[in-house]
């Protein structure tokens, strides 16, 4: 069975982060890597340690490969997909009402 290839435009820091984020999350879902965005603790415990590490590394590399140079410099010190994702949200989410509501929802949904 052949897997489909999905490409998204690299996020440079100048384009619409909200749209890039939606596309990137969809790409990670297609690849089965979406759990890595929540952190290592949310990856199913039924997976072996090697499988967990593979998911975390693949998600991190997928995000890194989808970033332009400027955005990559901003997150280069982060060591996980979840940390990169949160840093990008912190840096590039605009201050619009919709984004503020989204951030409040994330804050109170622990």
UniProtKB/TrEMBL annotation:
Look up the domain of life of the source.
Answer: Eukaryota
Q: Name one Pfam family in it.
A: Retrotran_gag_2
Q: What is this protein called?
A: Retrovirus-related Pol polyprotein from transposon TNT 1-94
């Amino acid at each position: 069975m052949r897997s489909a290839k999905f490409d998204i435009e690299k996020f440079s820091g100048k384009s619409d982060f909200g749209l890039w984020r939606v596309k990137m999350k969809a790409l990670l879902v297609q690849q089965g890597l979406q759990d890595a965005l929540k952190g290592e603790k949310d990856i199913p415990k039924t997976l072996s340690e090697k499988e967990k590490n593979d998911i975390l590394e693949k998600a991190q590399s997928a995000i890194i490969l989808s970033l332009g140079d400027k955005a990559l410099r901003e997150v280069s010190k982060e060591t996980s997909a979840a940390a990169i994702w949160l840093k990008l949200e912190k840096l590039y989410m605009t201050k619009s009402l919709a984004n503020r509501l989204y951030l409040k929802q994330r804050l109170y949904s622990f």
